[in-house]
Design a protein that fits this description.
alpha+beta
């Protein structure tokens, strides 16, 4: 299990959610994406994105104007081609 860190401090909506979506595509299932943001709207946007992708937010921290999300990439079974 590996952790990929994504520094999105200083970016405003919708960039944190868009860059998180793009970064999640490169994270292998079972690994984590640690996202650091300063945009207060990311507490709404990123959890909504994770609901869409089917991944899981493990930890959300808020400290000193910074928001940290720990997102677990979930292994999805591929549908069979019958």
């Amino acid at each position: 299990m590996a952790i990929t860190k994504l520094d999105l401090k200083g970016l405003k909506c919708p960039l944190p959610a868009l860059k998180t979506r793009k970064a999640l595509k490169t994270v292998p299932p079972g690994d984590f994406l640690e996202v650091h943001c300063t945009d207060p709207l990311s507490v709404i946007d990123i959890p909504n994105l994770i609901r869409e992708t089917g991944d899981k937010v493990e930890i959300t921290e808020r400290a000193e104007g910074r928001i940290v999300f720990m997102i677990e990439k979930i292994n999805r079974a591929m549908p069979s081609a019958n």
